[in-house]
UniProtKB/TrEMBL annotation:
Residues 9-66 form the HTH lysR-type domain. Belongs to the LysR transcriptional regulatory family. InterPro entries: HTH-type_LysR_regulators, LysR_HTH_N, LysR_subst-bd, WH-like_DNA-bd_sf, WH_DNA-bd_sf. Keywords: DNA-binding, Transcription, Transcription regulation. PANTHER family: HTH-TYPE TRANSCRIPTIONAL REGULATOR BSDA, HTH-TYPE TRANSCRIPTIONAL REGULATOR YBHD. This is LysR family transcriptional regulator. It holds the Pfam family HTH_1. One of its GO terms (molecular function) is DNA binding. GO terms for cellular component: cytosol.
Amino acid sequence: MADDPFDAIPLLALRLLPLVARLGNLSEAARALDVSQPAASKAIVRAEEMCGVALVVRGRRPMVLTAEGRILAEHAERQDELARLTARRLEDCRAQGEGLVRIASFGASASTHILPQLVAAVARRYRKLQIEITENTDQPTLQALHDGRVDFATIVEIDDPDLELLPLKHDHLMALVRTADPLARHRTLDAQALAAVPFIMTKGGSEPLVRAWFARGGHAPVIRHSIQQITSILALVRAGMGVSIIAETAVPETHAGVTVTPLEPSFPRTICLARRVGGFASHAAEIVWRTAAARALVR
């Protein structure tokens, strides 16, 4: 990169020229900057030598700038304004968290029960901090985090040496059964009972856990439908097209015609906020992580 042509011009001269233009006197400009008049004169002469042109009209009272001096004074004022703007932005970043933080969510559990509360907690203290949430299934969410396309991701707790995790919520897998189905009368449901009827597999993020739960019981689900949206799963269960298993926190508050039943054995999981190990991409990201850490579960 080429050297800045203004680098060799004394900073004092750049600060003096706008004041000379305004005050019409080099001595007064020097006093305004708390420097001696000889030092001010030397800085102007040095700047003229570097520019190869006169910057002030000598022998005239009040002192005025030459056309070239005005050009340099205007540059100095623009630089001062840019410096003030930069300082304000940095202060906004420090004090108000100004910036954008991207979070990938793996589904309804996090998007409904974790992230709204986290966003609200951040907004109460840092009004200029913006959070952008994108929702996808487990693997795309995790990949977005590893690729650096997001600052954080909500994921089910995993063992990954490249990630730092904050546990934010515990929940369990639950069975969804049509209320009119005889299975709905059971206090709990095991893998044998659910493997004997048509099954609606969730594609919204819990599928690996559902398969692991069945395998633990020595059974496999008879999958008739594979559905991503929770509302669609509920509609199919309500219509008697099969049973399903989803996370407890993903179940809507109202689910008429569908009974939510605990599994036997239970299958707990921990929802975490994850980030790549190492430093933060921004102060705003660090603020969000600290806020989440204050709300994290005690291990």
